[in-house]
Amino acid sequence: MKLLNYIKGKFEEPGSAEWMDNLSPSTGKVIGSVPLSGESDVKLAIAAAREALPEWSGMDPSGRAEWLDRIADCLEEKFEEIAYLESLDTGKPISLARSVDATRSVSNFRFFSEMIRDMEDEIYEMEDATNIVKLRAVGVGALITPWNLPLYLLSWKVAPAIGMGNTVVCKPSELTPLTADLLMRVIDEVGLPSGVVNLVHGNGNSGSMLTGSPDVDLVSFTGGTSTGAKVAQSASPQFKKLSLELGGKNASIVFSDCDLEETVKGVTRAAFLNQGQVCLCGSRILVEDSIYERFMEMFVESVESMVIGDPMDDDTELGALISKQHLQKVQGYVSLALEEGGQIVTGGEPCLPKELEGGNWMSPTVITGLGTETRCSTEEVFGPFVTVHRFNSEHEAIEIANNTRYGLAGSIWTMDLEKGRRVAENIHSGMVWVNTWLHRDLRVPFGGVKDSGVGREGGKWSLGFFSEPLNVCVRHD
Ligand code: NAP
Question: Which of 210, 298, 369, 406 has the smallest CB count inside 10 Å?
Answer without folding.
Answer: 369
